[in-house]
Design a protein that fits this description.
This protein is α+β, with helices and mostly antiparallel strands. Helix content is 39%, strand content 13%. The structure holds flavin mononucleotide.
Length: 197
């Protein structure tokens, strides 16, 4: 059992930032297990606990998924480019053969759902946030990788990763030891549409 005293919750919330540069150091299984245990403490509609997890620590496999993801995203982008203008920065990154959508992080944890349902995605993302905050409290870096959702839901990849046919990869999160302290993020103040006292 790991200790919980490293950061209080609010400090972890403010300290968590997307980390996109990692050392090659591999995460211990016990550390990953600790993050998964924190993830499943998330609120869950109807107490369904619809989540399941895939952990990938094989860098060769991650690179293969990254390359396939880039091709898929560029193809999709081409297909819709007549409808909307592409994000030029994203296109440049995806076209760069050296760009790894997983930023060479030593682990990818995919929060998956075992079956589809009205609140399943919400539950999975809440679990993902728990996981990221627990990682922050441990001094680890994380980043959601939306770029990976498409490839992780291709039938052959789902089968390879044991994701049930009726389920899905919902929230891919990279985790690793950050190379540098992530700069503090800025947020606009909350927009309150109406406050009825
Ligand atoms: C659903 C989702 C998908 C994201 N996908 C990516 C991604 O594919 N690649 C990436 O570098 N960052 C990704 N991010 C990270 C966001 O860019 C980042 O959270 C945002 O810029 C705010 O920065 P912060 O997390 O440091 O506060 C994603 C975030 C979310 C919530």
């Amino acid at each position: 059992m790991l200790t919980y005293s490293k950061l209080d919750t609010v400090t972890a919330i403010y300290k968590r930032r997307a980390v996109r540069s990692y050392t090659p150091e591999k995460l211990e299984r016990a550390t990953i297990k600790h993050l998964l245990d924190a993830a499943v403490q998330a609120p869950t509609a109807l107490h369904a606990e619809p989540w399941a997890f895939v952990v990938i620590q094989d860098k060769v496999r991650l690179r293969r998924y990254s390359d396939r993801a880039k091709t898929l995203l560029l193809d999709q982008q081409q297909a819709i480019s007549h409808l909307q203008s592409a994000e030029p920065q994203a296109l440049a990154m995806l076209s760069n053969p050296d760009f790894n959508i997983f930023y060479d992080a030593s682990a990818l944890i995919v929060v998956c759902c075992k079956a589809k349902g009205p609140f399943v995605e919400a539950d999975c993302w809440l679990a993902a946030e728990n996981l990221m905050l627990a990682a922050t409290a441990e001094g680890l870096g994380t980043c959601c990788i939306g770029f990976a959702v498409g490839i992780l839901n291709m039938p052959d990849v789902k089968a390879e990763l044991g994701i049930p046919e009726g389920g899905a990869a919902v929230a891919p999160i990279i985790v690793g030891f950050p190379r540098e302290i992530a700069s503090s993020g800025s947020r606009k103040p909350p927009v309150v549409l109406r406050w009825v006292p």
